[in-house]
From TrEMBL:
<feature type="signal peptide">
    <location>
        <begin position="1"/>
        <end position="23"/>
    </location>
</feature>
<dbReference type="GO" id="GO:0004519">
    <property type="term" value="F:endonuclease activity"/>
</dbReference>
<feature type="region of interest" description="Disordered">
    <location>
        <begin position="109"/>
        <end position="182"/>
    </location>
</feature>
<protein>
    <submittedName>
        <fullName>Endonuclease</fullName>
    </submittedName>
</protein>
<keyword id="KW-0732">Signal</keyword>
<keyword id="KW-0540">Nuclease</keyword>
<dbReference type="InterPro" id="IPR007346">
    <property type="entry name" value="Endonuclease-I"/>
</dbReference>
<dbReference type="InterPro" id="IPR044925">
    <property type="entry name" value="His-Me_finger_sf"/>
</dbReference>
<keyword id="KW-0378">Hydrolase</keyword>
<dbReference type="Pfam" id="PF04231">
    <property type="entry name" value="Endonuclease_1"/>
</dbReference>
<keyword id="KW-0255">Endonuclease</keyword>
Amino acid sequence: MRKTLLICLSTAALTLPPPLAAAADTAPADTAPAAHAPADHADTADHAYYADAEGKTGESLKTALHEIISTDVTRLSYSQVWDALMATDQDPSDPGSVVLLYTGESRGADQHGGNVGDWNREHVWPQSHGDFGTSAGPGTDVHHLRPTDVQVNSLRGNKDFDDGGSPVSRAPGNYTDGDSWEARNEDKGDIARMIFYMAVRYEGNDGFADLELDNDTSNGGTPYMGRLDTLLAWHAQDPPSAFEERRNELIFEDYQGNRNPFIDHPEWAEDIWG
């Protein structure tokens, strides 16, 4: 009886399906594990846009990025900038308003002009630092133009950026002295990345001045902007926000067709100027 039972069990074992592990061993060779799944659309698009900059550092990286962000760019008129800023700097919690640089205040989008209480177009890289005015090009490049309270804009003037100074009563958290402006903490990184963009975008080969960074705070009417060491520290201190990333995307998709690489790849600032 025992012998018969063993034979039955042996026969039954022969008819069992192969173990799961064996089935896995026969999977097609090109079946990749989850860790190697294809990148999502955003990552793929980013790689394609910046492909010519991959693996570069220093001046080589700066040159490659200049070519990328200067190709097939749409130049806006200065009047078109009003409409662009109403979209790029829209208050997420109040679509009828824009968020002002230096104060973070929300102000009605249609409340723009040159009077007290209005907002106007702040050139974060001042027009006088390169003498480019408001002509299509650096004077209308939305990547460094932001809505700002008229009086605060006037107080900042064309000063370089650096730490220190006296508090700005109309813009708490900002400080200024005779030749520099310190932005509030929430804007420090945004400002640094806008300045980095301008120094890469405009290299003197398109009829405008070659914009460059230095460690001076009395650059006046020269095409230089400082203070580089401070801007690098601000960039590290205040990483790109969702607001900044959305702004970058809108400028690329709807207005100029180019991007600010230091929002997409913050590490590149150190690779170039560190």
